Each structure stands twice: as C-alpha cells, then as structure tokens.
Amino acid sequence: MNRINQKLQEDKKLLSIYFTAGYPNVDDTATIIQNLETSGVDMIEIGLPFSDPLADGPTIQASSTAALKNGMTSELLFEQLKDIRQSVSIPLIIMGYFNPMLQYGIEAFCEKCQAIGIDGLIIPDLPVDVYHSEYKATFEKYGLINVFLITPQTSDKRIHFIDSVSDGFIYMVSSASTTGAKVGFGNTQTEYFERIADMNLKNPQIVGFGISNNETFTQATTYAKGAIIGSAFIKHLTKNGVNATDEFINTIL
Amino acid sequence: MSYNINNKGYYGAFGGAFIPEMLYPNVEELRQNYLKIMAEPSFQEEFHQLLKDYVGRPSPLYFAKRLSEKYNTKVYLKREDLNHTGAHKVNNTIGQILMAKRLGKNRIIAETGAGQHGVATATVCALMGIECIVYMGEIDIARQAPNVARMKMLGAKVIPALSGSRTLKDATNEAIRDWINNPVDTHYIIGSAIGPHPYPDMVTKFQSVISEEIKWQLKEKEGKEDPDYVVACIGGGSNAAGTYYHFLDKEHVGIIAVEAAGKGIHSGESAATSALGKEGIIHGCKTLLMQTPDGQITEPYSISAGLDYPGVGPLHSHLYKSGRGEFYSATDDEAMTAGLELAQLEGIIPAIETSHALAIFEHKTFHPDDIVVISLSGRGDKDLQNYIDYFKL
C-alpha cells in the first residue's frame, strides 16, 4: 500500500510540512526531510521550484527564486533524493507546477519518482479534467497518488468529481488566496470546513493555506484529517536554518 | 485544416486552461457565458455603438503611397493608431468591460507591459464607473512613465510588480494572484490573445473588428475583400489575431507575423518566441514559450515593452507550427529604422511595437501587384523618449 494511504489510516490528526527544494542552500533537501521526520511530522511536500508560481504568495515565491538561483533543477532534485529511502520512511510528495514536469517528460518524471520512493504529486496548475483524460493512467502505472485542490468556491458537483478521481486525500485550500496570504480562520472558514465534512467524501481532507501555529492547526483539524504548513515553515528556515526544525514543530503540535 | 478554436478550447495542439483550482470558478463562468453574452443583440448594439462613437471606428484603411513606391508594392495601413487611447487595445477592453458588467462584476484588474492595455482598461473603467487596478512591472513603470500618469489620471490604481524580471510576465503573475485572492467580484481583463481558454478566443473575437473592417474597406478601394498579405507585429498577439481573424481560412491570403528579435535572435536578448520557444505552459495555456531545458520561463528582451513577453498566443503557435503563418523577427535596430522611415515617408509616428511590423520590408520582397495590409497597431507618442534617445533627436 502507498505510504500516503497507510498514514491516512492512522488514528491521529496529521501534520504535513511543505518546503522548497534547494532553499536556503541547494544541498539542504535531504537534511530538511530527515529533520522533519525526526521532529514528528507525518508527511512532507517537497516543493519543486518554478519561475512563475501563480498560486503562491511572496514567501514561497521568494524561496523558489532563491532555489533556482542556487541551481535547483528537476534532475538535481532527483539526484539529491536518490538514496532518501535509506534514511526515511515518511510519505513524500513532490509539489510543483506543471511546466517543469512537462519538459522533463511526464512518463520519465513519474518513473523517476517511483524509483526514488516518492508517493504522490501535487500539481496546482494541472486541472483535474486534463489529468483524468490524459495522465491518470501514467501516474497509476508508477504507483503515484495525485492530490487535487478544492477551495471555498468549488461547487459540490466538482468536489464530487474530484473525490471520484482522487485516491489519497483532498487538499482543502482554506480560503480564496495565494499561499501565506492570510493568517487565522473566521466564521467563513468554519462554515466551509463543516460543509465539506458533511459531504462524507471517500477521500479524507487535509487543509492548507493560512495555517501557521497550534491554534490554526487545531481549528483546521477539528473538521479535517490534517493540515499543511508551508510559508510559516519557510520563514522559520530563513530565520533559524535547517537544524531548528524541532523548535518549529513543537509550536504546532 | 481549421485555424479556429475547437470546442475544447484548443487551436490544434495549443490552448486549453491550465489553471489552479482557485481560478476555476471564474474561468468556467466566463467559458460558459462568453459566447452567449457576445451573441446578445443588446451586447452587440452597445459594443458597436461604443466602438463607433467613443473609439472612433471604423479606423481608416489608408493607402500609403510613398511607402508603396519605395518598396514597389501596394501597402495599406490599418490605422488602429487613430483609435481613442492610441492603439488597438481599446477594442478588447470595451468588449470585456461590457462582458464584466453582464457577469455582475464590480472590480477590474489588468496587467500591462507598455501601458497601452493599462490605459485602455483604465479608460473603459472610468467610462463605466468601475474600480480599476492595473499591475505593471517596476521596470516598465520606469520606461513608460507617460502611460502610468495617464492611468492615474483616469482613476486607476497602478501596482508595481516587484517579482522576477519586473516586466509584463510578472505583472501578469501578479494580476492572476489578485484574481485568486478576489474570486467573486472581480473580472480580469487580459490584454492579449493569451491566458486560459476562453481568453484567447474572446480577445481575438473582440479584436476581429480590425479584419472585418479591412474586408469592406478594401472592397471599396480595390474592388475585392481579400488582400494578398496581412502583416502584424506579435508580442502576445492580440492585434495580429484581430488582423488575421477573417482571413484565417482563406489560404490565398498570406499571414505574416513579425516578432521582436531584440538584439538578435541568438544574442540571448530577444523576444522571438516562435524561433526560440518550445511547447509548454505559461499563464494558463499550452503554447510556445521561451524557457530553459528545465522548464523555467526565461526573461525575454525587446526595446519594445509591448513585445517583451516570453510566450505567444496559442492561435499564433498553431499558425506557426501548421505553416499557415510566415514568421519573421525584426531587431531593435530594424524596427527603430522602420519607425523613422514611416514618420518621414507618411507623416505617421508609430509605436515601437508597430515599427516591428513595418520592418517586414527588410525581410520580404513583395510583388508590385501585391496588396499588403499592415496593422498600424499603435501610435508612437508614448515612445517619444525612446526615439529621442535612439536617434539623438
């Protein structure tokens, strides 16, 4: 069974952490992954940096620009990760935009992910419709789970379609925003969390965008299976370096 | 072969809507409604009334006698430079502001490179009394100061794009991010024939008034609707799309595109997308774009801010790949020289973007009987400082 599905079966709320590969330093990738696992994180999203990250706010944009300047590429990321399964068993997801994957070759990209032990992908600008008709078979051939986003504006009909195409979890964007834009949740979010919880979807939901501390983590996981933190962790990395992961995770859990 | 968009939003292999889920409801709302709204008699009436009384259409189709003599062919100029606000851009913003109103939107965002689309958007927002926010690269703000002032005077808020190369590509990113953050009340007026479906088709249809007029104007002057060639400059490609539209399926009409070669196609400072680009995804559509082997979008260069874009509209990628269009590129120097020549032969100072189309005569020799229609997409007032610096005027 895929490590993501195994993890989702555990009777606990999950904490997933996003970081940008190649940031702060180009060779930090494996160290950050190992430190996050040791700190008790449940899942990791490895950000493949892109020059034009449309869905991201200033923090992740800046880390992506820095990572690219550091020389990060798809090929280099795969090279850095080739032995990662010798040291960690945590579910690993690559999150990136579609164009770099398209240029690498979708089949070659998926094949490489499987060889390394990557469990899934999140590709914000690959719409579910295109995935469903053109790429699903390839992803499945290499045992990769593709994760889709939903937002407060996504219709019930489309959520049901996304649920039917998904085979892991649904990435629930907490509010209409780019990453790192808003902090904290209000009534609108609570209503949205409740609405989705009441839909009884077959895939569990993990909430992302706007989570930065214990309070927001707790609010999000009251209704959902877990939560994802990105921008807040990148800020912590920028300030405290790669070896202070515990310090950050302890403020969340 | 058809050169029009298919029902899935593709021109051949190019187009589609590669957008984050956050944008889906807005883009889908537009996709489901744009053709229906455009077909409404009340929409058509209002659109054409404004084009006539406010923009000043039809724009003249002018026989350029001295230019024709010099290049020994028959050259007509489609005078989009005489439109209100000084370029073809306003054809599209008039259409989209009427669309936005019918969709119930009360806030408009736009991106701009040279500032022409920003001014055209600020203008129609003032006309309709709707809030307007324009994203513009920090570098473009510096090199197009008069247009920034015009937008402000028209009541628009100009927000500098500070990321990446701080030009058109980054202004577009920022506008898309704004739309993600404001998904309900906002309409994004994209200024070129780019972006996720249905934008390329919608923009092309609003700009198609250019070729619609060319047909009847040429009939009056030459006794036939179809020229031998239509020529336009291409950045994202909206004036070109409008100039070609009614001739796309008429194979006897040659379609000519002129891109910006910057300091030379292989100089590393160029915006000649068809020559340097590879198929990929930019700003929500699959098209040709300039990128690294790793799929990172690269920074283009052109002396013309309006052509300084690393992609090209999906229609144009299809015209290039299918061989329907002849693609050329003009360097900064060729364009500037062609701009000066038009000023001195015909008394018309063109925008530097447009000067690239006029540089076609450096690259192609036409037959004396050929009728060549060039889209004179914009006037050069905004570029005076560039001309002054270049020619030491």
TrEMBL record, chain A:
<dbReference type="GO" id="GO:0004834">
    <property type="term" value="F:tryptophan synthase activity"/>
</dbReference>
<keyword id="KW-0456">Lyase</keyword>
<comment type="function">
    <text>The alpha subunit is responsible for the aldol cleavage of indoleglycerol phosphate to indole and glyceraldehyde 3-phosphate.</text>
</comment>
<keyword id="KW-0057">Aromatic amino acid biosynthesis</keyword>
<dbReference type="InterPro" id="IPR002028">
    <property type="entry name" value="Trp_synthase_suA"/>
</dbReference>
<dbReference type="InterPro" id="IPR018204">
    <property type="entry name" value="Trp_synthase_alpha_AS"/>
</dbReference>
<keyword id="KW-0028">Amino-acid biosynthesis</keyword>
<feature type="active site" description="Proton acceptor">
    <location>
        <position position="45"/>
    </location>
</feature>
<dbReference type="GO" id="GO:0005829">
    <property type="term" value="C:cytosol"/>
</dbReference>
<keyword id="KW-0822">Tryptophan biosynthesis</keyword>
<protein>
    <recommendedName>
        <fullName>Tryptophan synthase alpha chain</fullName>
        <ecNumber>4.2.1.20</ecNumber>
    </recommendedName>
</protein>
<feature type="active site" description="Proton acceptor">
    <location>
        <position position="56"/>
    </location>
</feature>
<dbReference type="InterPro" id="IPR013785">
    <property type="entry name" value="Aldolase_TIM"/>
</dbReference>
<dbReference type="InterPro" id="IPR011060">
    <property type="entry name" value="RibuloseP-bd_barrel"/>
</dbReference>
<comment type="pathway">
    <text>Amino-acid biosynthesis; L-tryptophan biosynthesis; L-tryptophan from chorismate: step 5/5.</text>
</comment>
<comment type="subunit">
    <text>Tetramer of two alpha and two beta chains.</text>
</comment>
<dbReference type="Pfam" id="PF00290">
    <property type="entry name" value="Trp_syntA"/>
</dbReference>
<comment type="similarity">
    <text>Belongs to the TrpA family.</text>
</comment>
Automatic annotation (TrEMBL), chain B:
<comment type="pathway">
    <text>Amino-acid biosynthesis; L-tryptophan biosynthesis; L-tryptophan from chorismate: step 5/5.</text>
</comment>
<comment type="function">
    <text>The beta subunit is responsible for the synthesis of L-tryptophan from indole and L-serine.</text>
</comment>
<dbReference type="Pfam" id="PF00291">
    <property type="entry name" value="PALP"/>
</dbReference>
<dbReference type="InterPro" id="IPR006654">
    <property type="entry name" value="Trp_synth_beta"/>
</dbReference>
<keyword id="KW-0663">Pyridoxal phosphate</keyword>
<comment type="subunit">
    <text>Tetramer of two alpha and two beta chains.</text>
</comment>
<dbReference type="InterPro" id="IPR006653">
    <property type="entry name" value="Trp_synth_b_CS"/>
</dbReference>
<protein>
    <recommendedName>
        <fullName>Tryptophan synthase beta chain</fullName>
        <ecNumber>4.2.1.20</ecNumber>
    </recommendedName>
</protein>
<dbReference type="GO" id="GO:0005737">
    <property type="term" value="C:cytoplasm"/>
</dbReference>
<keyword id="KW-0028">Amino-acid biosynthesis</keyword>
<dbReference type="InterPro" id="IPR023026">
    <property type="entry name" value="Trp_synth_beta/beta-like"/>
</dbReference>
<feature type="modified residue" description="N6-(pyridoxal phosphate)lysine">
    <location>
        <position position="89"/>
    </location>
</feature>
<dbReference type="InterPro" id="IPR036052">
    <property type="entry name" value="TrpB-like_PALP_sf"/>
</dbReference>
<feature type="domain" description="Tryptophan synthase beta chain-like PALP">
    <location>
        <begin position="56"/>
        <end position="378"/>
    </location>
</feature>
<comment type="similarity">
    <text>Belongs to the TrpB family.</text>
</comment>
<dbReference type="InterPro" id="IPR001926">
    <property type="entry name" value="TrpB-like_PALP"/>
</dbReference>
<keyword id="KW-0822">Tryptophan biosynthesis</keyword>
<keyword id="KW-0456">Lyase</keyword>
<dbReference type="GO" id="GO:0004834">
    <property type="term" value="F:tryptophan synthase activity"/>
</dbReference>
<keyword id="KW-0057">Aromatic amino acid biosynthesis</keyword>
